[in-house]
Amino acid sequence: MKVVRYEETMKHRWDDFLRNAKNYHFFFHRDYLAYHRDRFEDYSLMVYDEKERLMALLPANKASSETLFSHQGLTYGGFIVNDNMKMETMLEIFEAVRDYLKEVGFKEVIYKTIPYMHHFKPAEEDRYALFIHDAVLIQRDAGAVIDLKRPIKYSNGRKWSLKRAKNEGFEIEESTDFATFWKLLEEILQQQHGAKPVHSLEEITHLNTLFPKNIRLYLVKKAGQLMAGGITFENPDITHLQYVANSNEGRKIGALDFLIDHLIQERKTTQRFFDFGTSNEANGRYLNRGLIDQKERFGARVVVNDRYLWKLV
């Protein structure tokens, strides 16, 4: 095996391999990774076999002189592989990457796995390799996911809220007016959590320009007034609800519930999963019970997102 650090000249080779990966995600494209290059020192790796065939990609950044992170700017990380990947090959890749990273001075890797619902085919060879290399689980977040191919069971309270909301005369539109939504989002995040969105308005607008089919904005209006909105991150088989905001008036009349139900019902015929994201803080040790309860009332159930510490001994 040969391990090579990614360079800009390798962009097309990287993206071509990614498109046929069995654990593809659009935010592993180099254009997506590049949007926050000023915040993270890219240290992505490409792994070739003895016949110079590309076998795996590892989106990563240099977190410190001794720590490689896969990847601090992404929700998920880990090795990206195609259908040719076998278990023995993955073990060889781990050994080659370990030797390479030790040689250039790293002592540890913080490794984010990719949850199974993002796999087109089973792709957990890396989890077994982490076990073999004595990697330690250091973070586990509880994500809430609906399997759209199974009967979806809303709670009684959610059914009542939606019944009321459907009489409010809401209109849902797909929009590119990110500025209007962002103003509402920032106001609500500041009011409720004293927080800001992970992305800036400029970043999310730029990413939507690059990936218009994957990053989509939906607005809920009543008599022309914005009540709620949401941004989805979408792969072929899954929709992830990345950002949501409910105005104070919208909260009283169920505007966000109306939007979420609309998205769920619309995706049932074309996708497998609807992902609400995680409900944790403090490296997974704190569970926001109120937040996850809201997601579970839509019929979502837990899928964990794991992070490991791999010591390069």
Describe this structure in words.
The protein is α+β, with helices and mostly antiparallel strands and 313 residues long. The protein folds into two domains: 145 residues, Gcn5-related N-acetyltransferase (GNAT) (Aminopeptidase); 122 residues, Gcn5-related N-acetyltransferase (GNAT) (Aminopeptidase), CATH 3.40.630. The protein contains ten helices and 17 strands. A hairpin with a 2-residue loop joins strand 12 and strand 13. Helix 3 crosses helix 4 and helix 5 crosses helix 9. The model has no long low-confidence stretch (mean pLDDT 95).
Shape: elongated
The SS-based structural class is alpha+beta
Task: Please state roughly what percent of the residues sit in beta strands, choosing from under 5%, 5-15%, 15-25%, 25-35%, 35-45% or over 45%.
Answer: 25-35%
Which homologous superfamily in CATH is the superfamily of the largest domain? Gcn5-related N-acetyltransferase (GNAT)
Distance between the termini: 19 Å
Q: What's the total helix number? A: 10
CATH class of the largest domain: Alpha Beta
**Rg:** 21 Å
Point out poorly predicted stretches.
none
Report the biggest beta sheet as strand number plus sense, adding barrel if it closes: 11 strands, mixed
- Count every beta strand, where a strand is a DSSP E run of 2 or more residues: 17
Could you state the order of secondary-structure elements as H and E?
A: EHHEEEEEEHEHEHEHHEEEHHEEEHE
Strand order in space, largest sheet: 2-5-6-8-17-9-14-13-12-11-10
